[in-house]
Design brief:
It is a single chain. By secondary structure, the protein is an alpha/beta fold. The protein is about 25% helix and about 25% strand. The protein has eleven helices and 18 strands. Strands 3, 5, 6, 9, 10, 17 and 18 form a seven-stranded mixed sheet that branches. A six-stranded parallel sheet has the order 13-12-11-14-15-16, with helices on both faces. It has a five-stranded antiparallel sheet with strand order 4-1-2-7-8, with no helix packed on it. Strand 7 and strand 8 form a beta hairpin. Helix 4 packs across helix 5 and helix 4 packs across helix 10. It is globular, with a radius of gyration of 20 Å.
């Protein structure tokens, strides 16, 4: 029996309880978790903004050590450090055929599987976003594990599985930030902090962080922000004042709210790029008029998982970490146990802190 954080129903409090995991069958891998990040997507699953079968073991950003492997698994072995990949690509669907593996039609089919059972009553449990990282151990498909890049501490590697890949990819793949450009980042949470670091790596000249909390300024500047703007109805005007009245070349929205998406759009220069990373609910309606779309000539684009291919991008992230250009640990503002996840959810709702990290 192992301990895990279980979501019994949408909108219900998480329960830390014992679960029984099966041994890994063919094509499966058992992993002992070293750490798991508490991501806003976990909160979105908990409150129903995103839907998966319940009851479920949540958690999708993690890293750990392989305990055992099933028949046919050859790319990892017991004792190996691995990063969990919550959105494995099938390699067969239309998106995969186009090389857009982050849009794989079958990436989340594993969420409907029976993952484990509650130890107290035998209730079937699903694996949240495929990997069920809010647990001491998990059993996942072999496609859901990738080797930890050389030289990256296992606990830090947990952040690579979502926040760092998403922020890095938003800058390098989705927005394609060029040296000398200006970048505005809306939301200084875990993904926002990774986006700030990545903008610095890309050679952005002016990096403007925007958040509703003045307490985030120090975090933002440590991550690479050259300027900090407290979010208000004047945000776009302030960003234009910082960019010779043009607006930012690139705005990256990491919140998922209509007001911040609209502010990011308004803060982008004529002909610039607005990239939306944040996941909002269906009630978050953003409106544009036809004339402004023509006049401003901006590009508005969504961004899924940083438009990343984890197998390709994890080694690149490892190089940046070893060279000291990227610091996953700097995203973490709180280290907690499984019991601390509900409080971490409340901090996210209140806009407090960066990434909370469950350390086992």
């Amino acid at each position: 029996m192992i301990r895990a954080a279980v979501l019994p129903a949408v909108g219900a409090p998480l329960e830390v309880t014992g679960i029984e995991l099966p041994e890994p069958g063919p094509g499966r891998v058992r992993v002992r978790l070293a750490a798991a990040g508490v991501c806003h997507s976990d909160l979105s699953l908990s409150d129903g903004t995103m839907r998966v079968p319940v009851p479920a073991v949540l958690g999708h950003e993690g890293a750990g050590t392989v305990v055992s492997v099933g028949k046919g698994v050859t790319h990892v072995a017991p004792g190996d450090g691995v990063v969990l990949n919550w959105a494995p690509s099938c390699g067969r669907c239309h998106a995969c055929g186009l090389g857009e593996v982050w849009l794989c039609a079958d990436a989340l089919t594993g969420a409907a599987d029976v993952h484990a059972r509650r130890a107290d009553d035998g209730t079937d449990l699903h694996p949240g976003l495929n990997v069920a990282a809010f647990a001491q151990e998990t059993v996942v498909a072999a496609s859901c594990v990738l080797p930890v890049p050389d030289g990256v501490p296992l606990v830090d590697a947990a952040l690579l599985g979502c926040a760092v890949l998403t922020g890095y990819g938003a800058v390098h793949h989705a927005a394609r930030v060029r040296p000398g450009e200006s970048v505005a980042v809306f939301g200084v949470g875990g993904v926002g902090l990774a986006t700030l670091q990545s903008a610095r790596i890309a050679g952005a000249e002016r990096i403007i962080a925007v958040d509703v909390s003045a307490e985030k300024e120090e975090l933002a500047r440590r991550a690479g922000a050259t300027d900090f703007v407290l979010a208000s109805e004047n945000t776009a005007r302030e960003i234009r004042a910082l960019t010779d009245k043009h607006g930012a070349d690139v705005a990256v929205e990491c919140v998922g709210r209509a007001v911040s998406i609209r502010a990011a759009w308004d803060s982008t220069r004529r002909g610039g790029r607005t990239t939306v990373v944040g996941i909002g609910g269906k009630d978050q309606q953003v409106t544009f008029n036809a004339l402004e779309i023509f006049h401003w000539g901006r590009t508005l684009a969504g961004c899924v998982y940083g438009n990343c291919d984890p197998a390709r991008d994890l080694p690149a992230l490892g190089e940046h970490i070893r060279a000291g250009r990227l610091d996953p640990g700097a995203l973490v503002t709180e280290r907690i146990s499984l019991e601390g996840i509900p409080a971490a959810f409340e901090n996210m709702r209140a806009g407090k802190g960066g990434r909370a990290l469950v350390v086992f």
